[in-house]
Amino acid sequence: TLLALDSVILPNYAENFNVYEDEIIFSGRRNFCSIDANGEFNWSVTKSFPELYRNDLFLSTRLESLNYLAIGSNVYNTDKDASPEFSNVYLLKVDSEGEEVWENEFNILPDKFVRISVVYELENGEFVLLGSTYSPWNPVVIRVDSVGNLIDYSSFGQEEENNWLPWSVLEEENDRIVLSHQIVYGQDEQTGFDESTIAVSTYNLSTGVYELMYESADIHDYLFTQDFVCTPDGGYAVLGYRSGETSLPSFVHKINSNFEF
Q: pLDDT, tens digit, for every residue of 143-188?
């Protein structure tokens, strides 16, 4: 299946778009490419893993060095008619011409499907990857070095009342990061989500300890947050929607620099 975007033909499974002033970075199932402001390809990379059940490049970003990083999951399953058994975290770095600089792959949680949703480049050149397992949703924080080798990881918030999903890294402070997320209170098998809140926490990269800084007072039914962005006044805006039986009402929450609603 193909998806047409102006004059550009892109493979389907458009997992991630990043829009910059001069280009759009796209990643999807086995595909990673750059498109210029006129809609022409700068470069395109397609990875093939015949031994896999599936390869998904969920996330892509442009680095300060003007190289590019794609992150996804290599899913292994000997029985392709069954649900995926487990996945490895997969990283691919290419240069400004789309030539491969390095790729890496590792497993952190046996028999778990891990999806990375946030990548943040630290000042020392390392990367922090934020994501979660699937069914149940348990958060993971992974640290890798400048060439994608695993340094360490944490998986916490296992208790149902403290289950959170990451959205973004807001800033780096000494040996910790400030990140936005949602806390999910209760799940059921039919909906996947039950009730959740908007939250901001700090995570210590040395100790693996996180501390809650802010949590919205209201608990929302079926809350899905799409973005958490800094605003010119030093505060933050949270954008998303609530899923109901008959409608999908959108919301914008404004938080000041002290993480007060």
A: 999 999 999 888 765 454 446 667 778 778 778 888 877 777 765 5
SS3 162: helix
Q: What is the pTM of this model?
A: 0.76
Instruction: Report how far residue 182's alpha carbon sits from residue 185's, in angstroms, rounded to the nearest whole number.
Output: 10
Could you please report the per-residue DSSP string of the chain?
A: -EEEETTEEEES-EEEEEE-SSEEEEEETTEEEEEETTS-EEEEEE---TT-SEEEEEEEEE-TTS-EEEEEEEEE-S-TTSPP-EEEEEEEEE-TTS-EEEEEEE-SSTT--EEEEEEEE-TTS-EEEEEEESSS--EEEEEE-TTS-EEEEEE---SGGGEEEEEEEEEEETTEEEEEEEEEE---TTTS--EEEEEEEEEETTT--EEEEEE-SS-EETEEEEEEEE-TTS-EEEEEEE--SS---EEEEEE-TT---
